[in-house]
Design brief:
The complex is a heterotrimer of chains A (528), B (543) and C (377). Chain B is an alpha/beta fold and 543 residues long. Chain B has helices spanning 20-26, 34-42, 46-55, 57-60, 72-76, 79-88, 128-134, 171-179, 181-191, 203-211, 233-240, 242-256, 270-286, 308-315, 344-356, 358-362, 395-401, 434-439, 458-472, 478-499, 506-522, 526-530, 533-541; strands at 66-69, 93-96, 107-111, 119-126, 141-144, 150-151, 219-224, 260-265, 293-298, 339-343, 372-379, 385-390, 410-414, 423-424, 449-453. Helix content of chain C is 24%, strand content 16%. Chain C has helices at 17-22, 45-51, 103-118, 129-137, 173-180, 216-220, 287-291, 319-337, 352-366, and strands at 28-32, 35-39, 75-78, 85-86, 97-99, 161-163, 188-190, 197-199, 226-228, 242-247, 256-262, 267-272, 306-308, 314-316, 342-345, 371-372. Classes of the chains: A alpha/beta (528), B alpha/beta (543), C alpha+beta (377). Chains A and C meet through helix 2, helix 9, helix 11, helix 13 and strand 9 of A and strand 10, strand 11, helix 7, strand 13 and helix 8 of C.
């Protein structure tokens, strides 16, 4: 997030796209609700009529995977109606002319033909966003989990830049991180292309800095991203896998192919708190401590580094992941971590990353959490980015064109399937399904079906049904609802006995490798 | 396995909140599922809608066929026996707070077939013949239409003159339009008209406060939620002289720059409702209401909504819980707009003031008081009814107009509604005016007078009224909500002590004083602040 | 686009009047208990007093909610009113003289609390706001107990939120929180007078209402009438639990909360949120953060290292054996197929330090950049 969670309540316009905020980020959604109840205007763009759509001033029910068309239509309106911020564009950006040319043919009518949102609604939303001073964009996986996810993000950033909604309070470009420490995992360099602190592995200066600190030579070529690793297991390109805290046999797309390939691995090391599906296939399983049993830090969506503290002792012989990693690294011959505590580890990272250099456990203890960039021990941290203009020189406009999703419905596979999260469970639900209260509220997998489709297929509410795609099939209970539009169905990803990712496609975004969890073609089949 | 409702009930905008209470009428009251229907129709969240409807007894208990008034005058006339006799008859019958028919005691209210917020007031009568047939000891009561009210005879020199004929020409409004708003405001000032709803606030002051906000779309509201026990004067104004009240409102709108009139009428008043609707139609046809909108909104069974800010909450589709002041309604009232709210009788005084001048009106009062006043009187009197006397007339004068005490000698009287308490017979010469009654530790209030002869028990009368406050407290603040319950408990103990031939214990007397102090100091609105007054009177004059 | 657009169209809106107004300049001066205090127009007496370090007790006040002044706890004397005024919603005005410690105010606090005590047939829960006020200000000699006919929801089968009507003082913090912050309006004040209670529509279970089980109602309740059902039986022990401030491990909002630990049992008993206004989550939590902590000490947790034995079964072992087996397997793959046939999947569920160590394991120990984690946004 360029901006902070606490600024949302003071916003005067919220543009929420591809984020079912009340279910995926409930507490942040409370800030949105407060803004709206206070009088802020709300634009919601989502193929599903999500909760926030009910209180929205403009609800844009776009066709799945057509975000670029919608955003280009909005950009067209903003430019055509003279609602841009020319001073900001001139002073802080590059490449506006290319975007202007790119969106020129994308009239709201043409955009409407692709994305299904009435042209006047596209215009109204564009005007509202462009002409409100404190207007922020909030998005999450509905934007990124597409083969054109990066294009979607560029489409949004073009809107931000042409209207100058950057570097001021309650505005900006705000991806909401799906997991507790997505931000921190990226910050800490769990990336094939970045060292910690977003320093590129191909950058010689950066690499020399880490080589000097760690006392070893480092690879100067980018590694495989997750999506590529999963595919390389099939081809033998990956033979050994270390997995910490993820159940890849639930959370990765197109699981049947991955499961078939798992025997190709000669080494599978898993550390987790439960014996999940992946751990059941492992050669070695390390019992880990959960968040309540260890010390450390998480970094939230607004770049705030906060403490995790040991409240209870881990069960049995379980140990914190950091301790296991220190020991394992020593066993494979690298002893540079021996004897370090979490605080020491953070200090080593902060010493190598200018963005975090001013952050320490002592300061977090005293100040309760610090937002990077925080370059020096006396720096207060940064509430919103780009206050003095874009961080690195001029911000780039990047023209994007609409590309359809890789697998769309056809007569044999007539329904468009989207997957996502619910309020009551979390990811593979290894944690949440071990608490009866949420299980009571939501006990088993369901598939949302529009009553028109259900009636055509002869399906009743609550009836168990097969959901099938070209890659696999699961069973789920039908939930009749008008949240989904006719012709579309939606499944939660949480249920191990009905893994949504047996169905999804593993085509990834060209830049990030993120898979297209949000769109594929499916059938619903009666079980009798 | 039970499938629970899921996260798909979005918060909607309350676009139709003002229709919330009428929508419950249409749904047949608060039945299972009604809140959902109303929520879908109005955009108000389901639980919120439920919470609102549950506040109002006429909605919350839709299956009651008959309600029997348990007010003081009605209990003195046998309401308890009527209630149990009618309950034995098999219909759904329950007691209720004052129905504003103390002159027809014991009063009852029958739910009309089909409901929909329509009720018919009736009088309960003991049937001697049937009682004989039903066996020893079992009384039989039936419900019957009531007779014509006792009123002061026609007299053109009275400001209101209930027995007179309505002036269908609305000459006073025409005159006000000619003379202009400033002249009207001056006349109201000159009349020294004090509000007839209970607080006695100078009307001219209120009107000028709203007129200063004329640029913010003010609204004129008539408080016709007459519910103060012992009070039924507004009922007769609306039934007898609906044009007078409407004309007064129209003049007020002209004076303060408003174009919207709202009347909040208690739904229990059938004849006034019919008279008002007919008068509105005829005035509309005659062109008197050109440029003015008139809305007749109905109450749903909550005494507290007679309090002006609780009334505003009800009009806005909320629970009738009084607001804090400031802001005062003259600045921010109905929907945040400047609001002129007066009582029925107050508005009914206006046409005469405009026609005959403020000084004329001021001169009508007794002593320093100004104007005539409608005094409803009931209980142990020969001709319970509504009498128009000079404001400040003595209780004795009023009693004489009503034909004197019946059933014994005068023991006590309640001069102005439930919270005015009981004054002893020795104070019968007191002037029924704001100042003198306040000095005596009582109040004129709505001037609903109840007379007790010497066969009555003042403790029982006080307990009746304490229970009334407990039932009618809105429940918002603890001093009132809990305090009224504590008062009832202490009075019940006192009753038990008296029955056992003992006196109230010192600790209970001290507790009564402490809780009374807290209710007066801590309560948000007048209900809780004034509820302990009857107890004080009891301790002072009748123990 | 012009830069001089005013900062927001709704400066004095009802939802957050105090806070919005509090951002203004302190241009007024009031006297509180003899001390001059500067205040901004639109501020309340309570805000000014708290800034001046003057304690005014409250019950129905929650910074996140529009003040109602209903509980009457904060009544003080103010020179602009004959009656005492609720400090939580009475606006400051130039020259106002406010007294919070007079005999009248003190008598009021005692006699009001005595009414609350008279309305608490089961007694007052220890450690709650109401209990603390009673200990601080004392009670008057006993009033008779009343037995208000407040209905609960005995058939509500949700596992998380328990409403105990006998302990409720109807401050409406729960219903206002549900309406103004969580905005699902699942609960409401219902009935009236002594029968007033907290209800759902038609008194259905919270599971069948619009409730999202965020538990904010429990957190804001000043009397313990709302409590975590799982641990309601030990509500009396709450004051003795040890709070450990930490960060929620579910989504990326980073809510701070306190794990309330029973150290003797090595057990997290309940989860509470920090005071409003002190952390990013402003005192709020969601159903997962507040309630779904049953996994922490769950019997299915992994408690010992496992390795695959000769027969292909996963069997328990000791740490030394497991670490050595893992090291041998990874170095074996490297030596046989090359370093870039190793993949390291780190976790956005784990700490910064652990992610740092995983990438360091990949890069420093094995020389490969094949390190990633599931992090799409």
């Amino acid at each position: 997030m360029t901006n902070s969670i606490g600024e949302i309540r003071n916003a005067d316009c919220l543009f929420v796209i591809g984020s079912n905020t009340t279910e995926a980020h409930p507490v942040l959604a409370m800030e949105m609700k407060r803004a709206v109840l206070r009088g802020a205007k709300l634009i919601v763009a989502d193929p599903r009529r999500i909760w926030l759509a009910g209180m929205a001033d403009h609800y844009l029910q776009l066709n799945p995977g057509t975000d670029v068309a919608l955003l280009n239509g909005m950009a067209h309106t903003i430019i055509a109606e003279g609602l841009t911020d020319p001073a900001f564009i001139a002073q802080h950006t590059e490449g506006f002319e290319a975007v202007k040319a790119q969106v020129a043919p994308w009239t709201p009518e043409r955009a409407s033909a692709v994305c299904g949102v009435p042209a006047d609604d596209i215009r109204a939303a564009a005007r509202l966003y462009a002409t409100t001073y404190k207007a922020g964009i909030y998005y999450t996986l509905g934007i990124t989990e597409h083969t054109h996810g990066t294009d979607n993000v560029y489409g949004l950033s073009n809107l931000v830049l042409m209207t100058g909604h950057l570097g001021r309070e309650s505005s900006g470009m705000n991806p909401l991180r799906g997991q507790n420490n997505v931000q921190g995992a990226n910050d800490a360099g769990a990336s094939p292309i970045y060292f910690p602190g977003y320093q590129r592995v191909v950058d010689d200066d950066a690499r020399r800095r880490f080589e000097a600190a760690w006392g070893v030579a480092l690879d100067d070529q980018p590694g495989l991203n997750l999506n590529q690793m999963m595919k390389e297991i099939r081809t033998g390109g990956v033979r050994g896998l270390f997995v910490m805290g993820e159940d890849i046999l639930v959370s990765e797309p197109n699981l049947n192919e991955l499961e078939k390939a798992m025997p190709n691995l000669e080494a599978l090391i898993v550390q987790d708190i439960f014996l999940n599906l992946t751990a059941q296939r492992a050669d070695v399983v390390f019992p880990a401590a959960c968040f309540a049993e260890k010390d450390g830090t998480f970094t939230n969506s607004e770049r705030r580094v906060q403490r995790v503290r040991e409240a209870v002792a881990p069960p049995g012989q379980a140990r914190p992941d950091w301790q296991i990693l220190v020991d394992l690294t020593a066993r494979v011959g690298y002893t540079g971590n021996v004897g370090m505590t979490p605080s020491d580890i953070y200090d080593e990272m902060a010493g190598l990353c200018d963005k975090f250099a001013g952050i320490s456990y002592a300061r977090i203890e005293a100040e309760g959490g610090l937002q990077w960039p925080c370059p020096t021990p006396d720096h207060p941290g940064t509430r919103f980015l780009h206050r003095e203009g874009p961080l690195r020189g001029k911000a780039q406009f990047i023209p994007v064109d609409f590309r359809p999703s890789v697998e769309l419905p056809d007569p044999a596979w007539p329904l468009l399937l989207c997957t996502g999260r619910t309020l009551y469970h979390y990811n593979a639900a290894t944690q949440t399904r071990r608490d009866q209260g949420v299980v009571d509220k939501q006990s088993a997998c369901f598939v949302e079906v529009h009553p028109e489709d259900a009636s055509r297929l002869g399906l009743d509410d609550q009836e168990r049904v097969e959901v099938r795609t070209r890659r696999g099939a699961i069973e789920a209970a039908v939930r009749l609802t008008t949240r989904v539009a006719p012709g579309r169905i939606w499944l939660p990803m949480h249920f191990a006995e009905a893994r949504a990712n047996l169905l999804t496609v593993d085509a990834g975004d060209g830049v990030t490798g993120t898979a297209e969890y949000k769109v594929c073609a499916a059938q619903l089949n009666r079980l009798d | 396995m039970k499938i629970h409702r899921m996260h798909d009930e979005p918060r909607r905008r309350e676009e139709d909140r003002l229709r919330l209470l009428p929508a419950f009428d249409a749904a047949g009251g608060l039945r299972p599922g009604a809140a959902k229907v109303v929520s879908d129709a109005t955009g108000v969240p389901e639980a919120t809608a439920y919470g609102v409807a549950s506040f109002y007894h006429l909605l919350a208990r839709p299956d009651v066929d008959v309600r029997v008034c348990t007010g003081l005058s009605c209990r003195m006339a046998g309401a308890d026996a009527a209630l149990s006799a009618l309950q034995r008859g098999g219909a759904a019958v329950e007691g209720c707070a004052c129905l504003g028919q103390c002159d027809r005691a014991p009063a009852a209210l029958q739910t009309d077939p089909g409901g929909g917020g329509h009720f018919t007031p009736l009088q309960a009568r003991r049937s001697e013949a049937a009682a004989a047939g039903a066996g020893q000891g079992a009384e039989v009561w039936t419900l019957a239409p009531y007779g014509a009210p006792h009123l002061t005879p026609d007299d053109a020199e009275l400001a209101i003159n209930l027995a007179g004929a309505d002036d269908l020409s609305w000459a006073a409004l025409a005159q006000a339009r000619v003379e202009g708003a400033d002249a009207v405001l001056q006349k109201v000032d000159d009349a020294k008209l004090r509000g007839r709803g209970g607080a006695g606030f100078p009307a001219g002051f209120k009107w000028r406060a709203v007129a200063r906000n004329a640029d913010r779309d003010p609204v004129v509201i008539c408080n016709a939620d007459e519910g103060e026990p012992g009070t039924f004067k507004d009922r007769e104004v609306m039934a007898q002289r609906p044009h007078l009240m409407l004309e007064g409102m129209a003049i007020a709108a002209h004076a303060v720059g408003a174009s919207e009139l709202v009347i909040y009428l208690r739904a229990e008043f059938k004849a006034p409702r019919e008279a008002l609707l007919a008068a509105i139609a005829s005035a509309r046809a005659a062109g008197h209401l050109d440029g003015l909108s008139v809305e007749l909104a109905l109450g749903h069974g909550a005494y507290i909504c007679g309090e002006e800010t609780a009334l505003l909450e009800a009009l806005e589709g909320r629970r009738g819980m009084p607001r804090h002041k400031p802001p005062f309604p003259t600045d921010s009232g109905y929907l945040g707009r400047p609001t002129l709210m007066n009582n029925v009788e107050t508005f009914a005084c206006i046409p005469a003031i405009v026609r005959r001048g403020g000084a004329w009106f001021a001169g009508l009062g007794a002593g320093d008081a100004s104007g005539t006043k409608l005094y409803p009187i009931s209980g142990d009197v020969a001709r319970p009814g509504v009498y128009e006397l000079p404001l400040g007339a003595s209780f004795e004068t009023l009693l004489a107009a009503a034909g004197g005490v019946t059933g014994g000698a005068l023991l006590a009287f309640s001069p102005g509604g439930a919270s005015s308490g009981l004054l002893p017979a020795s104070m019968a010469d007191i002037a029924l005016d704001f100042g003198p009654l306040q000095e005596a530790g009582s109040m004129l209030g709505s001037a609903g007078v109840v007379v007790l002869n010497d066969t009555r028990d003042p403790l029982a009368a006080t307990l009746t009224r304490a229970r009334f406050f407990r039932e009618e407290s809105c429940g918002q603040c603890a001093p009132c909500r809990v305090g009224t319950q504590v008062l009832v408990r202490l009075l019940e103990r006192m009753q038990a002590a008296v029955a056992a031939g003992e006196a109230l214990s010192d600790s209970d007397r001290a507790a009564l004083e402490r809780v009374s102090w807290q209710m007066e100091e801590g309560s948000i609105c007048g209900l809780g602040q004034a509820a302990p007054i009857p107890v004080k009177h009891l301790l002072r004059w009748f123990t | 686009m012009p830069d001089d657009v005013p900062p927001g169209p709704f400066p004095g809106s009802a939802a957050a009047p105090a806070r919005a107004a509090g951002d203004g300049l302190a241009t007024l001066s009031v006297v509180i208990d003899g001390t001059q205090v500067h205040a901004a127009p639109g501020e309340t007496l309570l805000q000014a007093a708290r800034r001046a370090g003057v304690t005014i007790p409250t019950l129905c006040h929650d910074e996140r909610l529009a003040p109602t002044g209903a509980c009457r706890m904060c009544l003080v004397e103010s020179s602009d009113s004959r009656r005492m005024v609720p400090a939580c919603r009475h606006p400051v005005a130039e020259g106002l003289e406010v007294v919070t410690d007079s005999a009248r105010v003190h008598r009021h606090r005692q006699s009001l609390l005595s009414l609350y005590a008279a309305d608490a047939p089961e007694g007052v829960k220890p450690g709650t706001e109401l209990d603390r006020h009673m200990r601080t200000y004392g009670l008057e000699p006993g009033l008779p107990q009343v037995n208000a006919p407040r209905e609960g929801r005995p058939d509500d089968d949700n596992k998380y939120v328990l409403f105990q009507p006998e302990s409720c003082i109807l401050c409406a913090r729960c219903t206002r929180y549900c309406d103004e912050v969580e905005a699902v309006a699942a609960i409401t004040l219902a009935e009236r007078g002594s029968a007033t209670t907290i209800a759902t529509a038609d008194n259905v279970s919270l599971l069948d209402s619009t409730c999202e089980l965020c538990g904010g109602c429990i957190d804001t309740c000043p009397t313990g009438a709302l409590v975590e059902r799982k641990v309601a039986h030990r509500q009396d022990t709450f004051p003795s639990l040890k709070p450990v401030r930490t960060t929620c491990n579910y989504c990326g909002v980073g809510c701070q909360f306190d794990l309330q630990v029973d150290p003797a049992a090595n057990q997290v008993v309940r989860v509470t949120s920090p005071a409003p206004g002190t952390t990013t989550n402003d005192g709020n939590l969601c159903v997962k953060g507040r309630f779904a902590y049953g996994f922490i000490g769950h019997p299915e947790r992994l408690t010992e290292p496992l390795i695959r034995d000769a027969s292909g079964e996963l069997v328990p072992t000791d740490w030394d054996t497991a670490l050595q087996r893992a090291a041998d397997l990874l170095t074996g793959v490297r030596d046989k197929f090359g370093k870039d046939t190793l993949g390291f999947i780190s976790s956005s569920r784990c700490t910064n330090e652990e992610n740092y160590l995983v990438q360091k394991l990949a890069r420093a120990a094995f020389g490969t950049n094949n390190c990633h984690q599931c992090a799409a946004t």
